[in-house]
Design goal:
By secondary structure, this protein is mostly helical. The protein has seven helices and four strands, in the order ααβββαααβαα. The protein has one domain. The longest helix is centred in the last third of the chain and has 29 residues.
């Protein structure tokens, strides 16, 4: 169980960064993004739909990809998948530096920048979240499996608790 602590802490950090989409990215989109595509304007709230749409589009692709790699004996380990999710969510905020720089000069950043950030975070989520659920059930003693699933979701809560204040 002590090995699980590292997964818990890493997951909490992941969700802390990931869930800035509802605050930091939304505030940026409202004040500093060009919320239009080809002259067609859309409300800022639509950015909150990007992640769910990407999840629905990419989850079957990831499932197929993992199965194809598994058949060839080349599926990455749990640690590699989990770590890649962490790297991607961190990279999403390095990607955020580009639209921040654009907006710094008083210009509006293109909507595509925010979609790219959400895409990067979503791929990270698809790497980390299912793996975290799997690790939780595998590492938990049989009689505590249900409680350990609660602990996994507590990591989400711990990360979300820090996202009440935007970081920009």
């Amino acid at each position: 169980m002590s090995a699980y602590i590292w997964f818990f802490v890493a997951a909490a950090v992941f969700w802390m960064i990931y869930d800035q989409g509802g605050s930091t990215l939304a505030i940026f989109a409202d004040s500093s993004a060009e919320n239009s595509v080809l002259g067609w304007e859309f409300p800022v709230s639509w950015y909150q739909s990007v992640n769910p749409v990407l999840i629905m589009a990419l989850a079957p692709v990831f499932a197929w990809f993992w199965l194809a790699l598994n058949r060839r004996g080349k599926e990455p380990s749990t640690i590699v998948k989990f770590g890649s999710g962490l790297v991607l969510v961190g990279a999403s905020f390095f990607l955020f530096l580009a639209p921040l720089s654009i907006a710094e000069g008083g210009h509006k950043a293109a909507a595509a920048w925010l979609v790219a950030i959400y895409f990067t975070q979503t791929v990270g989520e698809l790497l980390l979240s299912p793996v975290g659920l799997s690790v939780t059930t595998k590492m938990a003693p049989v009689k505590y499996a249900s409680q350990m699933m609660g602990v996994w979701f507590l990591a989400v809560t711990a990360g979300d608790a820090t996202t009440q204040t935007p970081i920009i």
